[in-house]
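ping. complex inputs:
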Amino acid sequence: MIVYLVRRLGQSMLAIMAMAVLVFAGVYFIGNPVDVLINPEATQADIIATTQRLGLDKPLYQQFGIFIWNALHGDLGTSFVYGRPALDIIMERLPATMELAVVALFLSVGIGIPLGVWAGLRPKSIAGRTIMGGSILGFSLPNFWQGMLLILVFAVILGWMPAGGRGETTEFLGMQVSFLTWDGLSHLILPAINLALFKMSLIIRLARANTREVCMQDYVKFARAKGLSSRRVVLVHVLKNIMIPIVTIIGLELGSMVAFAIVTETVFAWPGMGKLLIDSINLLDRPVIVAYLMLTVLIIVAINLLVDVIYSLLDPRIRLSEMKG
Amino acid sequence: MKALTLPLMAGLIAAGMTPALAQDLSIGLKSEATSMDPQFHQLSTNIQVAKNIFEALTTQDAVQKVTPGLAESWEAVDDTTWRFKLRQGVKFHDGSDFTARDVIYSFCRVPLVENSPSAFTIFTGGIADMQAEDDHTLIIKTKATNPLLPTDLWSLAVLSANALGAEDTVTFGTDGTCEGMGDVPQSHAFNSPDVAVGTGPYKLESYTRGSEMTVTRFDDYWGGKPDWERVVMRPITSDGPRVAALLAGDVDMIESPPIQDIKRIEGEGFHIVDALSNRIIYLHMQQVEDAPGIEGTDGKNPLLDPRVREAISISINREAIAERIMGGYAQPAGELLPPPMFGTSGRAVDTYDVDRAKELLAEAGYPDGFTITLGTPNDRYINDEQVAQAVAQMMARIGINTNVDASTASQFFSRRNALEFPIYMAGWGASSGDMSSPLKSLVATYNADTGMGPTNAGRYSNPDMDKVLIEAMATIDDSKRDEMLQQAETMVLDDFGIIPLHYEQTVWAMKPTLSYEPRVDQYTMATEVKPVAAE
Amino acid sequence: MTEITTNAPARIDSPSKRIFKEFIEDRIAVVGLLLFVIVALIAIAAPWIAPQNPYDLAQLDIMDGALPPGEVSFATGQTYWLGTDQQGRDMVSAIMYGLRISLLVATVSLGLAITIGTIIGVVAAYFGGKLDSFIMRIVDLQLSFPAILIALILLALLGRGVDKVILALVIVQWAYYARTVRSSAIVERRKDYIDAARCLALSNRRIMFRHLLPNCVPPLIVVATVQIAQAIALEATLSFLGVGVPITEPSLGLLIANGYDYLLSGSYWISIFPGLALVVTIVAINLVGDRLRDVLNPRLQK
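pong. complex structure:
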């Protein structure tokens, strides 16, 4: 297991490095941040001076070397726009994104699994078909369009919810969170639903398919024949057996939720790190872009690893050393 | 469907209209200041926020006329020497007195600010020496004649030398060689009210990045008691949510509501204020032999022919753009600054005439037109991408087949500065409120050594105009300078060296209980927001 | 979704006939297929049936800008059944052309990604060993990152353009096919007929593509239908975020994005109609894909 973990970590580091090189070089070529940041009345001499101050006059390999050297010392660079460590700026935005992603995850699991199991147990019932139809819709509507419709219906037409922003935040366990106040919660609901819908559809489909397969297994048929209450059959046998693939998906999806939050945050003007990424891309704030990516990749890699470990705990038949990287 | 929005808004307004604490004001801004340090980033968002806390030797009123600030009066002793009489009895937020030392310290700190993305050195770089004759008399010497020094000084915030840890005597030296500076605090220190000490009407109370900045009334302000007990400024960068925040009563006032929403906001009983800004939206054409992105001309650059440039100008129906794309919140432009600002001549807008435009093209040898690429940013100016598409539509009508190449401002400016566009649309806001600003940056012959024409990515060059402009820029006498600037501008426009499209109008929306005198420089200044007596 | 998997007739019918028969048993899936055919026909025929060429700026008139559905043009007297956008572009035509771009991007990237993914997958399965584990490691690594993140960064670096969007979609999609093809090819490889083919000294290439590949097709089809819907949605999302296709060739996603600013102010048609077209397209494909999966998945057939 340790060998596996080490190898896995090594690969992930390589991936992170590759990503860093790609993005670093890419952002270098798309434009010069000084062109955007500097006051247009600046003269050519001012532009040169600013370029030097930001270290952008050095050749690319040298800039990259400096970046890597600093990164190894825990410094991911100083934001061109804010003049402060890029990591600090992202960390300020991280709680907002995490809150959104976690709430969305709870929504998608809490609603998705019961619906999926229901549809799997009674695939031909009207409810089962409706659930599946709904999940196809949830699966098909692009995330941003769902968000727009939510705003149109609940904010513009009905006026129940605010159209965007984060609302009031309070301190909770050292983080600024918004679910503890009504104002904060009302701002959180729509974006969380928006982010959850796609995953919810995915989980419904997965839970249904797995439930159907499990129900055809002999031991479930046997349990039924033994006269166990169907409630017990569902709770003990079915749920237990569909949990493995679902835990995997949930783990993997938490990572993709952080990524998909980019879209939701853009639509709902949620001040998280996804929105920061889009803003930074627009301003060519390279240190922030690179730091965002490295952090996100790190989060995803960590989650994947965690999922593998949980997976092996849930299913003793799987030993980590046998799994592919 | 239009009526749909009404019931909701009515509900929201009912909530928002409950009389808030009359002494408090909250403003929704369209962007966030990148730092509380007024010397960090020369960006309008930062400046307008800092102006509540910090003041400068001079101020600019709503139409950018320079008026006394921390300096009561000033005079040019000779071409390069100025004497400023500083205001007496001015106190900083920490209770200390304002003296010439603070000014010298503040100007000295400018080159010492680290990591500045756009430094204020463009204003201090021309200063050769500063001397305090006494505590309230300051001599400033410039390296070259600079009639705009009082204007420039508006951009340089005066900080408290004491609060920042300066020594008792501060001696000026050029380019960061001042003495007696002590340990100079860097920009992030300004998040603390102990460091962000100014003389302005409001004191910094707290600053939370991404969410809000709060200032409170400074009771010892020299200019009389400020109107508000507390002012909260919240950046709400997306247009929709900013409007919603106003309608819901979360904020009392917002800047730049999207044009398409103005009717609705007004319909809800809010007060709309708008004014012509100093921002001109223009087309610039590449006037060098081998311009890229032009097809169907056998390798020639048709834009070198003034008749072609004129044809483009008169093919554009500026009224239609102002009405349809800008919703009436723009004014067709005939000049590079809206009259009656300094150096404008009152020149008429080019008349829209498709037939004449076609004739001109034919005369110039392009009866069948040609194909060209129009570059534009898509997130910089009000409805920029739509305006560019409309221009392309109109140019297509006279046979110039125009492809719009829109990119985000970051890519656009880099590509423009690399001369990738044969014709491009951009905007210019003259922060000095003076014609020399657009002339010097946009149409003066590009010369990296003298700093002329830095934004002249069309590489238009008119040596006669350059001569007049350079002379004007070294003329202290206002009326003579005005005349020369008018002359220089007319030379460029007669030549169609650049094509003005429209002046943007800046819009603010607020509760009916507030009033705001709109500013040409597009700044939202809490100090200028006044309560209206209830009727 | 229906469970009427029959017992008998498969004997006589060829596999494709069986699949077709089973497919049409689900009426919803048939509706999905029909819808998709209609959408595809509209997209293909857009230049001939659209009332206006929305890309030809000379045909647009901003005086007709932002007209609600059913209004008549000031200039030409034509009726705009779905209204116009702020440039005076007829929304009916814009949607037809937008569909065209959306489908073009999706299908071209699908074709390229399948080709690349299949070749890599078959090669990995056939040769096995180090090569296989190396390729699969890359595949797994890539699949562990959300497609949208990779595509967004790529396009932020490459800039806007139809070709660039296609490139980005190919890069994020090839791994799915590589993995699918490899896993079914590896099962096939162990079967006797491949050994037989080897004994006949057939060339590696011939074995891989004439014998292994055909057996990987059913799962490939299932993955492809899911992926094409994803590709359309992803392209729309990227265009919505402003890094997709250029404004002069708006896809459905970009049309929606353009209308987004006007949505809250009441000009709903600029955004809503392209959105509906997009959703109908994706739902139709997903309905077909769902049914295909049920039909092609032997495990669910009792």
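Chain C has a mean pLDDT of 83.
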